[in-house]
Give the backbone structure.
Amino acid sequence: MVAHGRRRAVANWQLTARLPEGVVQPVEAPMLPRDNPVKDFLISANEKFTAYEELRPDAVRILTVVWDDHVQEVLAALLNPMSGLLTENSFHKDPNGEAVRFPMVDAILLCRYQIQLHALMRDQPLIDNELPFGYHHYEFPPKALIQNPHGRRFPPELLHPLNATRIDDCLGAEYSPNIDIVMWV
């Protein structure tokens, strides 16, 4: 993520999703989406939760992704209509050409916590003046919860204990999965 953040800092164009050939032809080569790490997180979680299912079949299975402030990268990887991993047009296909599903992952919780870790290492003030590894905070940025359409229904009564906000209730462009291209100025 550190190397990616450095590349992002000097890039002029960034694709957040895989787009069809010829849709975009920026002046220079854009940064490519960060969808493969997200795919790997889903594959790993689905495998681990499959084994866990025998021990706790009633448990809610949540994949938590810790990212930096550019959460549009993860959201596009998951929900972009052209290639999102949780959509019918997923770029990750099985041998029959069908979108791979992750039924053992009920929801994905997106935490923009890397900003806290960076501030901690630089001896800078932390968001909300919280403890360095404090999970609960009630200011911006929210922890965004994304329901997996192929998992079990996420119980709404867990939103408060998880300090989570449904993705549809998160404000800001970075919480939109429909942003395909970012032009950095």
In short: The two ends are 21 Å apart (CA to CA). Residues 35-179 form one domain. The chain has one domain: 35-179. Helices lie at 2-10, 35-52, 72-79, 114-121.
